[in-house]
Amino acid sequence: MTDRSTTLSSASASAAERGRAAALTASFLRGAIAAGLGLGALAVLVMGMWITSPYPDSGARGALHVAAALWLLAHGVELVRPDTMSGAPAPLGVVPLLLLALPVWLTHRAARDALEPEEGRPQLTALGAVATISAGYLLVGGAVVFYVSGGPLTAHPVRAALLLPLVTVLSTAVGAWSGSGRPVGPLPLWLPAGVRERLVRTVWAPPARRRTAVALRAAAAAVLALLGGGALLVGASLVWHGGAAQLSFTQLAGDWSGRFAVLLLGLALVPNAAAWAAAYGLGPGFALGTAATVTPLGITGPPALPSFPLLAAVPQDHGTPLHWAAAGVPVVAGVVVAWFTVRVAAPPFAVREEAWTLRATALTAALGGALGALLTGILAAAAGGPLGNADLAAFGPVGWLTGLAALGWLVGVGVPVALLIRVWRLRERRVKPDPGVSVVPGAGADGPGADGSGADSGGADGGVVAGGGAGRGAWWAPWRRTAAAGVATAGATAGVGAGAAEAGAADTEGVAKDGKAPVVAAAPPVGPDPESYDVLPAAAWHDRETREARWAAIKDASGGLMADFPAVPLLPPVPEPPSGGEDGSGEEVQVVREVQETKPDPETAPDRPDVTP
């Protein structure tokens, strides 16, 4: 009786706090596990190379140091070789882009999985997931930086402090956004009210956001086109210089384990080679040392060319039409920007009113080209870096110069091509009237057309068959039917109206008597008869004979399934009008009262207990 136990509310609150703490701890562990998985994968690979090598340079500790250094290099951290022949530390800054995909994918997946709802555990917010996963990942990253400090490859401290958190937080944030359903939330409150209002009216409006999404897809497709074209150039050049590539491959390693290591390194550097070739096709080219630059127009200065199979693909000649053909890669990328823009701005067979304006189409294509140029510049800057001191201090394309060249190509080609495709798709199609269009009474949706295809559809009371070439497709797409046939069919069906049913009945009797085909009548003028829309007076609509005729027609249409109910409307009592009906309202009320007072004939009423006459 004297025990002061916690109340139910305090117990539930403490349970919620414990559940939230457990969720944050689990998210922190997810980040640490993601870092451990990436580090372990590289450690297994390096240890396998060390075990199979007949003449290893160091023991297992040195191999583990190399694996940790490669894990840091995969995050963009520049490495330093302290032991060189000259005594000066040499930097190693060329990041294999294929290795970069490993930590990005692991952190992205960890953030996405952390936001999945679990039974019995509170749901984390996106900000909490990003903070905890990044903290767990960076804790392992800091330990790795400290571990490699005494090995053959050390990490540059400033690059490690900047790039390791940047890559981790960005990939985790994208994963959290994807795990939250890719929302487009409200603008942050720390922005000034005037800025938020202007953004809501311009950039944050639904049409502007849709155009931004189209521009992002066009930019991504253009970058993929540039990388694909660059990979194609690299493959063709490797085949052309196959002898030099094979000689370099055999010179680097004499045993199979070493050759396998060189092969894996070459595969990891294939995206870098594709980015270099894309910069070559864009025009600025790439640097082979501080004194040489390779462009389609020529090679300036003596190149510092190390022995490596991928570098054997560097063109030795210059100024030939075969080298100038590399400019086709950015042209194709510009056409891709235009295509991905117009496929939404002006879809095939679109009406001019449904398509975007010229200004909106041009701005969207320009935005897609600008975003694609920005991504291309970032990839070009990440694909290059130093390989040593002196002449090897600069290797690969220059990021800002490649981005400017990509901006000129993508915008200069994408915007005019997008406008031309839009004009072509929205051109006026003048369709001449086809004399073969005729009206067939009683032809439904399943009835065959004049050409026997059965594709022309008719209405419920009558059908229109398009003869000649009205229903044929265009010369470049015969499987597509032009919009002219559909418009003609719809207009003729609307013009036939109710008269087609009577004509169909007369033609059916003619076929039954003499066995001949019905006479095909000419199509009436398109457009309904204005007199068919005259409003019937209330007295004629509620007349007894008219009501019984409608009731009999409904009963005949039911096929005998409808019971023989009397045509008596069940209407609520109508109140007396407030005035004598000078404006015509009293006459309508009198007509409704007469309809209510109408009694059915007792002799025709059904003899059923559930029906009251």
From TrEMBL:
Region entry Disordered, spans: 435-463, 568-613
Protein name: Integral membrane protein
Pfam family, one: DUF6350
Record carries keyword Transmembrane helix: yes
Domain of life from the UniProt record: Bacteria
Record's keyword terms, sorted: Membrane, Transmembrane, Transmembrane helix
Segments of skewed composition (Basic and acidic residues): 590-613
Biased composition (Pro residues): 569-578
